[in-house]
Design goal:
The chain has 383 residues and is α/β, with parallel strands linked by helices. The protein folds into 2 domains: 114 residues, Immunoglobulin-like, CATH 2.60.40.10; 209 residues, Alpha/Beta hydrolase fold, catalytic domain (Rossmann fold, 3-Layer(aba) Sandwich), CATH 3.40.50. Helix content is 19%, strand content 31%. The chain contains 7 helices and 15 strands. The strands form 3 sheets. An 8-stranded mixed sheet has the order 8-9-11-10-12-13-14-15, with helices on both faces. It has a 4-stranded antiparallel sheet with strand order 4-3-6-7, with no helix packed on it. Strands 1-2-5 form a 3-stranded antiparallel sheet, with no helix packed on it. A hairpin with a 2-residue loop joins strand 8 and strand 9. Helix 3 crosses helix 4. The longest helix has 15 residues. It is globular. The two termini are 32 Å apart.
């Protein structure tokens, strides 16, 4: 998707964001936070992988508190790791721990024997005393069968009641995805945000896309590019299958489905929206460009079913998607009649926050607070 040098740099920054920049400093006698999976177990029950584990922040009384993070569960076989899910870990004082449980479908796993591993802070969003002790093997499990079932095709034909206020993995005939349904007490049909992560990212982005604001929308992150970049050829179909699954399982308003993405995910969001504009109410894009890397042109945008609204957030020193090129393509959209809101903030393609415990800047903060919180209440409606 990107030029070779830019891709290599982007992957390094995306996969190891906690390892760039100057080392942290601490007060006399103080040490950094250190998240460790201290114990855990795993088993297969029916068609689910069930795991229980404990995440601890160091052991010394002088250790710094660890900010909010996540723990990721993976199943590994023959050198390939399949991400089963992520769960939040609250802020932990020194020596304190959190108990975390998983119950995730086996449908994403082919039959066979797997090593199951849990990793705290897998994307190194926290600067820890050690980045080498975050993972622990919980055990080995055998998956004997997989089952997805057929997907019905009419609205709310197969209602799905999932836990509210947390990430839930789900698999059906459309594929796998992770969904966050807010616990807001409303019975009205939900709006939807389909979020697509960038190269090297994963479904953990759902914690930034989730509705903490009372806007009454479902956030969903499709599978299909975990740890890699999105395919511009197969990606649009993956997104459309996700929409079909949402329509079958949840009481959504089909005219209020917003498509969003960062970097490679933004490329796919633009491409899918141009080619299938009738399905989407608008696009939220960040550190990407409308045409450059997704195989579309202004001609495709001109032929779209309607001129959907766009909010595009760019960082002024983005080395992967330089500002000048992005501005030119956004101007092309405006010339075609698209209502474009351009947001400009200081930063590069990926930046860690100045204060990880109370972030007021950095890429993750801008994604969650400026783009999602700032515009998922714009109440866009498709024709």
């Amino acid at each position: 998707m990107r030029r070779a040098v830019a891709l290599s740099l982007g992957l390094v920054l995306g996969l190891l964001p906690g390892l760039v920049g100057p080392p942290p400093t601490y007060a006399a006698g103080e040490t950094g936070p250190d998240l460790v999976v201290t114990r855990g177990s795993v088993r297969v029950t029916g068609e689910r992988v069930v795991a229980a584990l404990v995440v601890t922040n160091g052991r010394g009384a002088r250790a710094r508190a660890a900010g909010r993070s996540v723990v990721r569960l993976t199943a590994e076989r023959a050198g390939r790791a399949v991400v089963l899910g992520s769960r939040p870990v609250p802020r932990l004082a020194a020596g304190h721990h959190a108990r975390v449980r998983f119950a995730v479908p086996t449908a994403r796993l082919q039959p066979g024997r797997y090593t199951v591993r849990a990793c705290a802070d897998p994307r190194h969003r926290l600067r820890e005393r050690s980045e080498r002790n975050n993972c622990r093997v919980l055990g080995r499990v055998t998956v004997r069968t997989t089952s997805t079932g057929a997907l019905c095709t009419t609205r709310l034909c197969d209602p799905l009641d999932v836990a509210r206020g947390t990430e839930v993995p789900y698999t059906d005939a459309s594929g796998s995805y992770w969904v966050y349904v807010p616990d807001d007490g409303s019975d009205a049909p939900y709006r939807v945000l389909i979020w697509l992560h960038g190269c090297g990212g994963d479904h953990g982005d759902i914690w930034g896309a989730a509705d903490y604001w009372g806007y009454h929308y479902i956030a969903i992150v499709p599978d299909g590019a975990e740890g890699g970049c999105w395919s511009m050829s197969t990606g649009p179909d993956r997104v459309l299958r996700t929409v079909a699954s949402l329509t079958a399982h949840f009481d959504i308003d089909p005219r209020r489905v917003v498509l969003g993405g960062y970097s490679s995910g933004g490329d796919l969001a633009y491409r899918t929206a141009f080619l299938h504009a009738e399905r989407f109410a608008g696009v939220l894009a960040m550190n990407t460009s409308p045409f450059r890397d997704n195989g579309t042109t202004p001609s495709d945008a001109a032929q779209a079913a309607w001129r959907f609204p766009v909010v595009h957030l760019l960082h002024t020193d983005d080395e992967t998607y330089p500002e000048a090129g992005v501005d030119a393509e956004l101007a092309d959209l405006e010339d075609l009649g698209y209502p474009v809101t351009r947001l400009e903030l200081a930063g590069t393609h990926w930046d860690e926050p100045t204060d990880p415990d109370n972030p007021t800047d950095g890429t993750w903060h801008d994604f969650q607070e400026v783009l999602v919180k700032g515009h998922m209440d714009d109440d866009w409606v498709s024709p």
